[in-house]
Write a structure and sequence with these properties.
The complex is a heterodimer of chains A (about 110) and B (about 110). Chain A has no helices and eleven strands. Chain A has about 110 residues and is mainly beta. The relative contact order of chain A is 0.34.
């Protein structure tokens, strides 16, 4: 079945440093979504990428969707303590029925 | 609008007991799903529904049943709880199966002893 892996599993950075998490799917995806989950909270939608090679930016966050629509990345420039949480990618299969989440990357930012 | 409402927030069960986790949404969303979250394993899809009367299995369906008799409600039933089902359960809904954003409930923390 469809599997979505993320690396790294955990990253601890100093405030102001950059951060990147990578997402890889075992199958080609219709689209990929990114979510953020704060400690003790529930996942909250950040963005969706649909097109091959698509790049989207939200302030300090840059999201990319690979040319083959099997991988994606999230890059945060100049992290802040408010960026703390776990970032998940989620891939929608080509049948548009299953949204499968990645394993997540937990980000810790020290002031 | 309340969004996606899950009840209860916390539950402790004994092995072998059954229970139903409730999920309701008031956004007239077509697509609903259940996930479980375990440390280091992300969110794993248990069951999903693309509309009232239609359900299907996700990645980890064993030990769980679902039904979707109305658009609003999507309960998850544990028939005979096992310690391996100790987890945090999230219900989510989307406007349609092709839709973008999934809205999540607050989660149910379940412990099976």
């Amino acid at each position: 079945g469809q599997q979505v892996m993320q690396i790294p599993q955990y990253q601890h950075v100093q405030e102001g440093e950059d951060f990147t998490t990578y997402c890889n799917s075992s199958t080609t995806l219709s689209n990929i979504q990114w979510y953020k989950q704060r400690p003790g909270g529930h996942p909250v939608f950040l963005i969706q990428l649909v097109k091959s090679g698509e790049v989207k930016k939200q302030k300090r966050l840059t999201f990319q969707f690979g040319e083959a629509k099997k991988n994606s990345s999230l890059h945060i420039t100049a992290t802040q303590t408010t960026d703390v949480g776990t970032y998940f990618c989620a891939g929608l299969n080509t049948g548009f029925q299953k949204l499968v989440f990645g394993t997540g990357t937990r980000l810790l930012v020290s002031p | 609008n309340a969004g996606v409402t899950q009840t209860p927030k916390f539950q402790v069960l004994k092995t072998g007991q059954s229970m139903t986790l409730q999920c309701a949404q008031d956004m007239n969303h077509e697509y609903m799903s259940w996930y479980r979250q375990d440390p280091g394993m992300g969110l794993r899809l248990i069951h999903y529904s693309v509309g009232a009367g239609i359900t299907d299995q996700g990645e980890v369906p064993n030990g769980y049943n679902v039904s979707r008799s109305t658009t609003e409600d999507f309960p998850l039933r544990l028939l005979s709880a096992a310690p391996s089902q100790t987890s945090v359960y999230f219900c989510a809904s989307s406007y349609s199966r092709r839709s973008t954003e999934a809205f999540f409930g607050q989660g149910t923390r379940l412990t099976v002893v």
